[in-house]
Structure to design on (233 residues):
């Protein structure tokens, strides 16, 4: 399909790990991004991964990329109540018909962390 | 650096009224974008610009116009507002540079404008 897909909701208990999944569309996409949106605010880049990597780790965040299945995941270890937000997956497409500079976003996953 | 700023933060319009949303960035970015965000719909691209004096249509351009007269500013206009345009509007900018066709396109977002059309 044409859409970047994510599940809409995820609830976890404080201290557990959260895993947010995303399926993207273009096997030749170069960069894949995770953005975080806190209530009432704009989106902020959380992390990104280049398509020649399988994994990227940054403190509590781990990004896994499965190019064969076009699947991206974001794992947040030791999830805190401050991690409650909407998380967007996005891709930079490189294929025919893509627009240089444009990002294609999923619909966002609302992460709720219960104390 | 202020990054990306948007004015106003909130606005209520009556059907048929017009308004302009202003976006400004101080990062010398070439590319700028306008999105709207509606519950369950994620972000949808309205219009974008790849440089001063250029604009292009995104996914949902109808009912909106844009202008990029200066590199640092990107204006979004609603000529005759409709209730379907009630939404949160986000502006973003990016460097837009490429190397060998590979582009790192981190977009920097403004705080948003919450628009209600009655």
């Amino acid at each position: 399909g044409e859409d970047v897909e994510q599940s809409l909701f995820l609830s976890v208990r404080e201290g557990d790990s959260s895993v947010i999944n995303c399926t993207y569309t273009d096997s030749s996409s170069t960069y894949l991004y995770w953005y975080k949106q806190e209530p009432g605010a704009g989106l902020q880049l959380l992390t990104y991964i280049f398509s020649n990597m399988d994994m990227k780790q940054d403190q509590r965040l781990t990004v896994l990329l499965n190019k064969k299945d076009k699947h991206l995941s974001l794992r947040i270890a030791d999830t805190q109540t401050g991690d409650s937000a909407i998380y967007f997956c996005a891709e930079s497409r490189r294929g025919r018909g893509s627009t240089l500079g444009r990002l294609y976003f999923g619909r966002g996953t609302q992460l709720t962390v219960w104390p | 650096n202020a990054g990306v700023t948007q004015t106003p933060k909130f606005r209520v319009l009556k059907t048929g009224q017009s308004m302009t949303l202003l976006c400004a960035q101080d990062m010398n970015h070439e590319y700028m974008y306008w999105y709207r965000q509606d519950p369950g719909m994620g972000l949808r691209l309205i219009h974008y610009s790849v440089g001063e004096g250029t604009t292009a249509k995104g996914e949902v351009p109808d009912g909106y116009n844009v202008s990029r007269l200066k590199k640092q500013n990107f204006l979004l206009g609603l000529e005759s507002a409709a209730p379907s345009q009630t939404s949160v509007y986000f502006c973003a900018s990016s460097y837009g540079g490429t190397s060998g066709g590979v582009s790192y396109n981190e977009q920097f977002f403004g705080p948003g404008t919450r628009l209600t059309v009655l």
About this structure: Chain A touches chain B at residues 8, 30-31, 33, 40-45, 48, 88, 92, 94, 99-103, 105-108 (CB under 8 Å).
